[in-house]
Design brief:
0% strand
């Protein structure tokens, strides 16, 4: 995930409104190495299911 963020920043994309969410998602992926070969959609489904709070899926 960190490599993707670096690549996108090099292309000019600015992560200004969601850096905390991206860091949390990155931390989740680091704790779940089995998801590394899965598509992003599957990663997000697992992340959303991991903590069912009102604001988490946002």
């Amino acid at each position: 995930m960190a490599e993707h963020v670096t690549l996108m920043r090099n292309r000019g994309y600015k992560y200004t409104t969601q850096p905390v969410w991206l860091l949390r998602f990155d931390r989740f992926l680091q704790l779940n190495p089995a998801l590394q070969d899965e598509p992003i959609g599957v990663m997000l489904e697992h992340w959303a299911a991991a903590k069912a709070t009102r604001n988490h899926p946002a």
